């Protein structure tokens, strides 16, 4: 993606102040273009098709429906749209759920004073930084050896969903707190390669969650 | 084949009965019980001039001429009873070693003389056809040559002659069925029972009684077989041995069976019984023909006495048990005694010479009765065992359920307690940490003695602590690397904002099994404090965070160091912050070392043992 091209951005956020602040910082950026502002999930789902944003910012705690619904809808209908999630705490349960629903990254609310646009660019490049805790959970979920975890005994990650050796190595390094650049240096690859690998990991997580859903449905004789 | 024979005989019998009824007024058969005899070694009938003397039939030599051993001629007079009919001659027992018939001077059989050289006690009935051309219209004479010995209870039975059509079905066939067919059928029954008992014994080896029921049954069947169809052997001694075996083969197994059934194994008695049996067999094989009857007499007495004694004892022992087989056993024993007594009387000459030998009829019932008791016991044992097994299984299942239930309850209680503890800890953290921080901030705000950057910093600290509390609840599976990584992740923007360089040297660390959320929070707070101190007060240009596993110290060593201005640890200028760090570490059993001196930077070293320190595990939450 050439840097000069402008990105269209839509926001789903029920807090008026936050939404206004986000909208202002996006509008101020020359490379970003605001195409939608939605205070509720339903409005977002209704308006997304028309707005067709490149990037969607979603708050998980919406008043009407779960932010996950919006993410799923966007991932299914607008595969070109990258979804960025807000979270106050960025706890494992919410972030993993968001990633599995198809989100490409997440932001901590109020964690940084830096410009939101940096996060958006990072997202377009390959997903926003994974927190070490999340990296570890992803490892646990997709690692072929880590089958039969305490929560889901007997769970088996099939070949295509399983992590490759390089992906495992990258996730392990990130889980210890190293940045993408440091991880690249430690493993002797470029930062861009780390990004690429992580993008693949995000996809696997989403695919794996779908496989699991199908498996679950079969088990419950829904299919 | 025997079945067919039986059926055809039954038909003949019915026919004969009908004939008897039709001819009732004109009997066609006579039984001769008067004769004349003369002692003579002649091979042809002696002349009428010989010294014939009258005698009644049957003539039991043991009674009439004790000690006699030789040949006797009998002369019987009879009238033809059915003119121009083929006649039949019938004797109820073959009671001689040689017997030959002459009708009106002509030998009846063209073959060699009849007789029972094998001296079996069974003494089957005899029947001969007398062609009508040999008979005169009246005044017929029959000469009978009988060879034998008084000791062997030889002699001549009554002689029946008449219309062949009636003699066979009415006299010979019933006698044959009683004497031979019945024993063959008993033999077959015991063969089946014996095999069945052995099969059952194979399924339950511990029940030796069944084994002996099988052996006894099969021995009796063999006895019966030898009695009915003695092998043709010319050697008289071997013949005697076989005859003896045919009579006593089953006796020792029967006695052993009774003893075993009575309880326990009487090794000495059993051995003695076997010895007596073998000795008797040896005697039977060695004794002369004349001496054998003495042995037979003795053996019969011993057998009867032993059987009665042992069975009587057994019935006595079993008196307490009120099962039906006991009565069957008592009845069978009574039968054996009565039959044996009768046979004994017959042997001594007190009973009719022509009557049947009864011994073979008592034993099968006795053995079958014993088999029935063993079978009944086997069934009851099997049933009891099955019941006990079922009960045991049921009990085990109940216990398993109980244990599972208890375990589940325990786990539920533990989980509940853990949740309660965790909730209490979070409440404490909220109250003492966040709550008091917010209250102090609020009071300072109210007093208006804070500027904006100060407020921002305090709020930032509070938010950081709040995030630390939330993060401490995230699953890290004892991985301190993740805990440290997460601190860096949370602090990234703050560090970036100050422009301080952060050197990150966190190696792969072994998992700490005992790491609780509480300890994670403590480690987070200590490291955050160290980092914040370095960032805010040290004026450092580089901060290094390292973590490695030290094998010789059996610990994970976390170091936070900076190249800032340092302070004097002894004077405690840094005050409150250091005390906090030490306190937290002490409460969690983490060793902490804070080294600093003015101008030489600060190093904070944490050590967490790779194995749990006993005193630390399960310590209730500190405030």
Q: Tell me what the CATH architecture of the largest domain in chain A is.
A: 3-Layer(aba) Sandwich
**Strand-residue proportion of chain B:** 15-25%
Taking pLDDT < 50 over at least 5 consecutive residues as the criterion, the unreliable ranges of chain B are 22-26, 615-623
Looking at the overall shape, the CATH architecture of the largest domain in chain B is Up-down Bundle
H and E string of chain A: EHEHEHEHEHHHHH
- The chain-level mean pLDDT of chain B equals 83
Using the coordinates shown, work out and report the CATH topology of the largest domain in chain A: Rossmann fold
Number of strands of chain B: 17
Describe this structure in words.
The complex is a heterodimer of chains A (223) and B (623). Chain A has 9 helices and 5 strands; from the N terminus they run βαβαβαβαβααααα. The longest helix of chain A has 29 residues, at 191-219. Mean pLDDT of chain A is 78; it is low at 146-156. Chain A is an alpha/beta fold. Chain A has 2 domains: 7-141, Rossmann fold (3-Layer(aba) Sandwich); 151-219, Arc Repressor Mutant, subunit A (Orthogonal Bundle), CATH 1.10.10.10. In chain A, α6 (132-142) packs antiparallel against α7. In chain B, α9 runs antiparallel to α10 (359-446) and α12 packs parallel to α13 (517-538). Chain B has 14 helices and 17 strands. Chain B has 3 domains: 28-168, Jelly Rolls (Sandwich); 174-388, Rhopdopsin 7-helix transmembrane proteins; 477-609, Histidine kinase-like ATPase, C-terminal domain (Heat Shock Protein 90). In chain B, the strands form 4 sheets. A 6-stranded antiparallel β-sheet of chain B has the order 3-2-5-10-7-8, with no helix packed on it. A 5-stranded mixed β-sheet of chain B has the order 13-14-15-17-16, with helices on one face. Chain B has 623 residues and is α+β, with helices and mostly antiparallel strands. At the A-B interface, α6 and α7 of A face α11 and α12 of B.
